[in-house]
Amino acid sequence: MTLTSRNAIVTGSTSGIGLAIARAFAQQGANVMINGFGDAAAVEKERAGIEADFSVRCLYSPADMSKPVEIAAMVKEAETAFGSVDILVNNAGIQFVSPIEEFPVEKWDQILAINLSSAFHTIRAATPGMKARKWGRIINTASAHSLVASPFKAAYVAAKHGIAGLTKTVALELATHGVTVNCISPGYVWTPLVEKQIPDTMKARNMTKEQVINDVLLTAQPTKQFVTVEQVAALAVFLCSDAASQMTGANLSMDGGWTAA
User: Fold this and answer.
1) Position 139 confidence tier, pLDDT thresholds 50, 70, 90
2) What DSSP assignment string belongs to 130-147?
3) pLDDT value for 175
4) Domain covering 7-189+227-260 in this structure, CATH number
5) pLDDT value at position 1?
6) Residue ranges of the alpha helices (H) in the chain?
7) Is the dihedral of CA 58, 60, 65, 68 positive or negative?
8) 204 C-beta neighbours (distance < 10 Å), count
9) pLDDT of residue 240
10) Start-end ranges of CATH 3.40.50.720 in the chain?
C-alpha cells in the first residue's frame, strides 16, 4: 500500500509510539506533522530525519495538548501547509499514579485534558475537511486500560475508557462519509519512557532488571513480551489502507493477551 498524497498529524510524536507511527506513515509516502515536547535539538533531528529518510515533508508543532486554542491552531496550520489533513492520530498522553483519596485534583484535570479532551478537540477541528473530501482516517491510541482497570490509575483509566467511547461515537457519525475511526489498545510497550523506569524500580523493590520486567511490568501480559512501537505503527498503517475501509468503531487490542482473561 501507499499513503502518497496523504497528510497526517500525529500528536505526542517526538518519541516512542507516536514517533514510530509518524515514521511509518512517512515511509509509505505521507507528509506528517509531529507534535510534542522535548529538547529542541532532539526534536529537530527527528523532524529532519523523517524528511531525509523518506523524502516527504515533515512539520513540527509545539502545540500544548491541554490547550484547545493551540490544538485548533495546529490543525489549521497543517491544513494550510499540506492542503489537507487526511489522517489524524491522537497519541498524546501522560500518566500519574496515586490512591484516589490522595490523587491531586490538578493531575486529574491535566490527564483528562491531554489523554481525552485533546482527542475531542483535534477530531472536531479535522472532521469538516475529511467529510468534504469523503476520506479520512482517525486513529486514537487507547490502552489495555480502555478495557480493564488497574488500581491507583483513576484518571488514566477513566480517560482511556473515554477514548474508547469517543471512538465508537465518532465512528457512527462519520460512517457514511468515507471516514473511519478506530482505537489501538496496546499493553506495555517497550519505549524509552518504560526503559527509564526500570533502574528506579530495581532500587525501590530490591529486584534485578529481569525481575522488574517479568514480575512488575509484564505480570499482566501472558506472552511475557513487550509490544514494540513498530508493531503498533504497522497496525496504524494498516488502518489507513483500503483493506481496512470497513473497520470502524473498533477497539483493537495489542496487549500480549492481557485483556483476554
Assistant:
1) very high
2) HHHHT-EEEEEE--GGGT
3) 98
4) 3.40.50.720
5) 65
6) 16-27, 40-54, 68-82, 105-112, 118-133, 154-174, 192-205, 209-211, 229-239
7) negative
8) 9
9) 98
10) 7-189+227-260
